[in-house]
Amino acid sequence: MDSASVNKDGAFGSCSAEPVNCCGEGLELKLAPQWGQLVRPAPAAQRPLQQLKVSNNLRLQYKNTLFIGKVVHAFSALPSTNSHAQELLSKSTPIEGTVITAAEQTAGRGQIGSRWYSPASLCISMSVILYPRFLEARRQFGLNIIAALAVRDTVQHFLADGPPCRVKWPNDVYLAGKKVAGILIQNQIAGRQLQHTIIGIGLNVNVEQFPPALPLAISLRQAGGALYDLWAVEEALGRALEQRYLALRGKQIASLQEEYYENLLGYGESCRYLLPGGREVVAVGKGVDEDGRLRLWFDGQEQAFGLKEIQWLPD
């Protein structure tokens, strides 16, 4: 898992003044139990989605949370919500749970510098600032666990009758063998303790069709056959993340890890992997070590692999 110092180079760039495309006229809203609104398509004559003008850096609040989302910096476009969070931390100490969200990311990042596809007003692109100083640096993989489980909780809620939602190590979230969400976590460490963390989440919500270069991507719309209120999904995600974070703070790591393994692709199962050097093997997942490396059993022994050292191959 990445551990990164605060970026002080101000490289997040300028912000677009384009309006945020949220739910608006021409949509039929139906309350989904507890967590928000499900937006079902209106008749074709009433489309496309109307735009709701929202000023850049508008401060909003999530409902029904204790601290996550009590300050929300909302932008119509940012290069990267994680980079903007780093910029905030370099200049001040935002309150815990501060959220940076953008209707569009123009330079979204994934693990180890990979790019994240985020079309305007169709996905959730958000970053949450937390101060997990209760957590030792060597236990930082716990943040991957709670972030992945929170995303899975949210997806399963809105797709209660949809395909099973699984986690792919370290923290991608998959539906029906395709990626619905990615997570980028950046930590600041001092000595043996974590000082702050930025949890960046990209969730594919209303994308109807992905580029041919992304054959293994999927959205809630594709899986559920409906349009979703982005703000309602984001609020639900914030609540789920807060619940999981409080469980981690409450020293429930053993039960969190058990649930993570229950939903981990390849755990206790034979799956195909591509090793460094191009060799393909069938291995059984044995879990994750303290350094966040994936433990695999093959060739009569157990080996551990870090990010970008091994590639899971879908069936």
UniProtKB/TrEMBL annotation:
Can you name a GO cellular component term?
cytoplasm
GO molecular-function annotation terms? biotin--[biotin carboxyl-carrier protein] ligase activity
Which EC number(s) does the record attach to this protein? 6.3.4.15
Using the record's annotation, list all stretches that form the BPL/LPL catalytic domain: 60-249
Under the heading SUPFAM superfamilies, the entry gives: Class II aaRS and biotin synthetases
Q: Which UniProt keywords apply?
A: Ligase
The record ties this protein, via CDD domains, to: BPL
Q: Does the keyword Ligase apply?
A: yes
Q: Report the PANTHER family cross-referenced here.
A: BIOTIN PROTEIN LIGASE, BIOTIN--PROTEIN LIGASE
What is this protein identified as?
Biotin--[acetyl-CoA-carboxylase] ligase
Q: Which organism is it from?
A: Phaeodactylibacter luteus
